[in-house]
Each structure stands twice: as structure tokens, then as C-alpha cells.
Amino acid sequence: MSSTQSTHERTIDWPRGHGRTDPIDRESYPGDLSPTRKESFQSVVDELEAWEATEGSVRIETASQHYADRPNIPHQHDKPDDVGVAAYFRREGEAADHEFAVSCDCWETQRENARAIALWARRQRLAERCGVQTAADTVETARLPPADEEAIATPPASSEDELDKEPHEILEVAPGASDDVVTAVVRRKSANVHPDSDDPDVAEYKRIQKAKEAMLE
Questions:
Q1: Which residues, in sequence order, are CB contacts of 160 under 8 Å at separation 6+?
Q2: Residue 120: phi, psi to the nearest 5?
Q3: 144 band by pLDDT with thresholds 50, 70 and 90
Q4: Of 110, 140, 149, 137, the residue nearest 29 (C-alpha)
Q5: Which of 39, 151, 215, 216 could form a disulfide with 16 if both were Cys (CB 3.0 to 4.6 A apart)?
Q6: Do 62 and 109 touch, CB atoms closer than 8 A?
Q7: CATH superfamily ID and name for 162-215
Q8: Residue 157: its pLDDT value, please?
Q9: What is the pLDDT of residue 158?
Q10: Among 44, 59, 194, 70, residue whose Cα is nearest residue 124
Q11: What SS3 string covers 35-79?
């Protein structure tokens, strides 16, 4: 049903069409990480099932070995090079051969990536309660293409392409702005797109952080 990504430990069944993050671009998750590793992975299952994934259909893939009695929980002490997490699931009312997948590998640890997926699923579920209609159903964006349909994976983003403008232009400050001004602006801009905010934008959050680093060098 999907493409594979090799690791030193085992092979991750990575969803077809899902791009991979270059390891050098991974960052520490800036949001709430109070849940334990086990809780973070269990919350992926819980949130997807709350979002109408068929009970028992959620399958989590990582580069770690998983517990035999808890197949969606990776071994606690495994530290694989590939920290990506992918979650496959089926939806109530969908044909049995229709599978969906969400994945994340932009953060530094499996725990962080699992946490990000769980928070994403929760936000989708809560957003649907609002009754707002969009041009594309969020669920459809997670649907895997048919096995006989060629999928084009998005290549990992290059760190050289992250800043498409000068740092001061991204932050909308003067080129010689003081550290205090830069810090205050970054705090304000980051709050709107923070991974734990109501309307997160990870790419923009990272862009702001890169601009800050460049200006505070």
C-alpha cells in the first residue's frame, strides 16, 4: 500500500506520496511535551479513532521494534536514526480497501513526531465540529492513492531555501534592529503560527526562527 524507507534498525512503511524531511532540518518540538513517550503514541491512536478511524484499524509505523502486546508502541529504549512516525487507518463508512495515512518526521524524536500527529488529528476533529466547509475535505488529503497510481513524493526541503527573503524582511523590522526588538517581534509572530496554537503553520514557524537566528548572530 505504500513506499518504504530503509533505516539501520528496520524499514519504515512510509506512506506513498509523503515527503521526507532532511535530517539536518529537524528541530526540537517547541510545544507541550508533558505526555510520556508511551502516552504520545497512544494519543495518536485515541485521537484518530475519535476522528472516526475504524476501531482497531490504526497502525503506527516507526523504525523501532514495537512491543508484541502493544503493537503501536515502540520500544522505550530504541533510538533509531530515522525518527519518522507514520499512522495508517481506515474510516467508518469507507470501502475496506480505502486506507488513509498521516505522517511526521520534521521533529527530532519519535515522541515529538507522534505528539504532533495526535495534536493535528485533534484539531481536525474539533474543526469539523464548527461546521465550516472548505474546498477540499481534510480527510481526503490523508487518503492514500491507489496502488496502481504513481505517487510523486515531495523532496525534502533544502535548508538553503528556507529564507526566501532577507531576515529583517521576514520579521518586518529594520536591518539594524536591536536584539530586544527582534526578540519581541519573533515572540509575537511565533505565537500566531506556533505548533500548539489554534492555527499552526510549522513551515512559517521555522522560517521565523531561522530569521531570528540570522539577525541575532
A1: none
A2: -60, -45
A3: low
A4: 110
A5: 151
A6: no
A7: DnaJ domain (1.10.287.110)
A8: 41
A9: 39
A10: 44
A11: CCHHHHHHHHHHHHHHCCECCCCCEEECCCCECCCCCCCECCCCC
- Distances in whole angstroms, Cα of residue 95 to Cα of each of 54, 91, 138, 156, 173: 11, 8, 18, 32, 53
Question: What 8-state DSSP symbol labels residue 165?
Answer: S
40: left (phi over 0), alpha (psi -120 to 50) or beta: alpha
Q: Residue 114, class by beta-carbon neighbours within 10 Å (0-12 exposed, 13-18 middle, 19+ buried)?
A: buried
Burial class (CB in 10 A: 0-12, 13-18, 19+), 180: exposed
CA distance 118 to 202: 15
Q: Is the whole model's pTM more than 0.70, yes or no? A: no
pLDDT confidence bin for 64, thresholds 50/70/90: very high
Q: What would the mean pLDDT of 104-118 be, rounded to a whole number?
A: 92
Model confidence band, residue 138 (pLDDT cutoffs 50, 70, 90): low
Of 1-15, 99-113, 133-147, least confident by mean pLDDT is: 133-147
Pick from 105, 111, 106: nearest CA to 73: 111
SS3 (DSSP) at 88:
strand
Mean pLDDT of the chain: 79
CATH 1.10.287.110-classified regions of the chain: 162-215
Closest CA to 106 of 3, 213, 31: 31
Report the pLDDT averaged over residues 154-176: 65
